Structure formats: C-alpha cells, structure tokens
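Sample intake sheet
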Amino acid sequence: VGLDVVWLEPVPLSRASWLALRRPFAPRVPVTRRARERCRALLHGHERLFLWDRRVWLDRGAYRDRDVRAILRPIVFDTAAVEHARPSGTVARSSGALARWMSG
C-alpha cells in the first residue's frame, strides 16, 4: 500500500505571463505569435498555470518492481531534502494533463 500525492499551486498572473513570453535562449528574437496568444489567454482568464509536484511513498520492497522503477525515478532518502524540495514543473489547465492523471 502506498501514497501518491500531487501538489498544485496556482502561478500568479504576473509570473505566468512572464513565463509565457520569455525567450531564455534567444532574448533578441521577437516573441512568437503562439506565445502572445498564450499570454493573452492568461490575461483574459481563459487559461491558468499551475506549479506541480508529485510525491509517492511506498514500502521499500515495492521499489524492486521493474514497472515501479520505470515510472518513479529519483528516490530521496533524506527527509530534510524533501522538506526543501521545489515544484517539479508547470502545467496549464488546458493541457488536460491533470485530468489524465486523475482518471488513471
């Protein structure tokens, strides 16, 4: 028996619009049309961006299963490191990733 927890936190609009328009590898290149549309959807409330993190707790024996190891990669044994962990990434509401995860 294990515990699988997905943590979500809404990204503030100012940060979400900055993420939508940023050009980390090409700062002198103009913003793409798709990026402007994504930012416009955020500003009009048609889209929402979330920070996410997933934590899974299992018995030690469960990690020996090949299927489990293929899905769950980093294993942290230091409890202090878990307390200071940062979110794994961002996900947009329109992507459907959250609905797919919930439906299995």
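Comment: The first strand starts at residue 3 and ends at 10. The first helix runs from residue 13 to 21.
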